[in-house]
Amino acid sequence: MDQTAAIPEPFREGGLRNRLTVPVLAYGGILMAVMQTVVVPLLPDLPALTGASPGAVSWMVTATLLSGAVLTPVLGRAGDMYGKRRVLMAALTLMTLGSVLCALSSDIGVLIAARTLSGAAAAVVPLSISILRDELPPERRGSAVALMSSTVGIGAALGLPLAALIVQYANWHTMFWVTSSLGAAGVTLVRWAVRESPVRQPGRFDVAGALGLAVGLVCLLLGVSQGGQWGWGSARVIGLFAGAVVVLGLWCAQQLRSREPLVDLRLVARPRVGLSHVAALLAGFAFYANTLVTAQLVQAPKATGYGLGLSIVATGLCLLPSGIVMLLLSPLSARISAARGPRVTLALGALVIAAGYAVRITDSRDLWMIITGATVVAVGTTLAYSALPTLILRAVPAEQTASANGVNVLMRTVGQAGSSAAVAAILVHHTRPVAGVPVPTLHGYQLAFVMAGVVAVVAAVAAWCIPAEPSGGADEVRSAAEGGTRGARDEALEGA
After folding, report:
1. How would you class 472 by CB atoms within 10 Å of its CB: exposed for 0-12, middle for 13-18, buried for 19 or more?
2. How many contiguous H segments (helices) and E segments (strands) does the chain have?
3. For residue 438, what are the β-bridge partners?
4. Which of 52, 230, 311, 380 might form a disulfide with 108, Cβ 3.0–4.6 angstroms?
């Protein structure tokens, strides 16, 4: 039975459920991004609220990053095998359970474990994009995928001011009760409005591959995220990086030998897929610096000569225009991709990100210029993030859509982790005392902007190097990808 058809049966436009499929999936993506950011306003106060050290409290962010990076490709593969809607509901349920545990406890161990569960929500976007490919007709697919990709930025822009307002005017546990309710609503809506796709890739789940990837990614991302705190030359960090190299090397060898691998590395090695992943890593790096630096810059004390001394609520409102722009521009991104191809959209988006950082370098003292620069970066991010899943959709067979998009989102996560570490390293080395407290200098922030802008230009080059689609269009590309993948599997089976 052929299970690679993009649309297994005609999409029925009528009916409330069918009309709400895209909004419900977009709601899940926004909720995922909100969950990743709501804890940020709490971080300065959590040591006093929980009786834990600042280092222990920081693990509420680190644990979510690590579990999200590990679970995204794993749940993507599970979705391709067992049903995307089923796995999507499981991811949202784990996220909701994590919120409930945070709402019920003040123990730092429980909070870290709960945030680890919430990291499963990182798989929501790639699973949803795969569902959209299976369920929507081609004329609706591009705009829906663009909107789904933009939910990451929209949710991040909405989550920070929402969390700040709740924390400022209510008990901090209230924030997690609110997110728990939103999560429960998400699970209910997906169950009601999203139908299960029959597009599957049945087989045996690669448990060894999942464990190997988990260990390798934890070693890599833990070293990157904690390198500044533990010391880049410390035995722990060097050991983690060495362990990551060894484990991921063995994992690659195991994946190439496996008849049913977790990640089809032969498919990843194809230029149209591999370069898309490289561009995702670079775009994630370039985008994340904007959020990190903007939040710190506008909250810096006025005594620094450049800081505005804004509250966390005001800081969140400064980022709100970026989220609105991402929401409004996602249809434009889809139209550009339809007219010129997604690689052109990706390259253009990366260049717009670089232009936004040029604005940031020119003036980072006036609030309106800071908001303008951040918004321009958001415009570029919308174009780039909307194009990435479209590139993947056109380059991989339908039954591998969720796992391939999961790897692409993983690459963005690795890029964001690298950006966080690099920005922190720059700011630590460019400080001056203000009222006896070391504070980053404006020059340090500008260097971070230069770094992110250069990475964005490199991302544009990588995007332009992605091979163009064959003249036959997307259908021919999918056919070639599917045939090539089956051929690669046959070769692997013969070799085994």
Report:
1. exposed
2. 18, 2
3. 433
4. 52
Total-model pTM: 0.84
Residue 70 has pLDDT above 60, yes or no: yes
Q: In the structure, what pLDDT confidence band is assigned to residue 485 with cuts at 50, 70 and 90?
A: very low
- Start-to-end CA span in the chain (Å): 25
Task: Assess whether pLDDT exceeds 90 at residue 133.
Answer: no
Q: Which two tokens stand for residue 346?
A: 């990706």
Enter the tokens of residue 283.
């775009």
Q: How far apart are CA 35 and CA 422, in angstroms?
A: 24
Which residues lie below 8 Å from residue 276, measured CB to CB, with a gap of 6+?
388, 391, 392, 395, 408, 466
Mean pLDDT of 97-108: 95
d(CA 181, CA 184): 5
CB 277 within 8 A of CB 395: no
Q: Which residue has the tokens 């690689």?
A: 343
Instruction: For residue 363, give the nearest of 446, 455, 296, 294 by alpha carbon.
Output: 446
| Among candidate residues 311, 295, 305, the one with its CA nearest the CA of residue 448 | 295
Average pLDDT, the chain: 85
63-92: average pLDDT:
92
Q: What is the mean pLDDT of residues 282-298?
A: 87
Q: Measured between alpha carbons, how far is 491 from 488 in angstroms, rounded to an integer?
A: 5
Q: For residue 96, what is the enclosing H or E element? A: helix 84-104
For residue 198, what pLDDT band results from cuts at 50, 70 and 90?
confident
Q: Produce one character per residue of 291-302: b if its CB has 16 or more CB atoms within 10 Å, e if not.
A: bbbbbbbbbbee
Q: Is the pLDDT confidence value at 209 over 60?
A: yes
**In terms of DSSP bridges, do strands 431-434 and 437-440 run parallel, antiparallel, or are they unpaired?**
antiparallel
Of 32, 62, 15, 428, residue with least CA distance to 221: 62
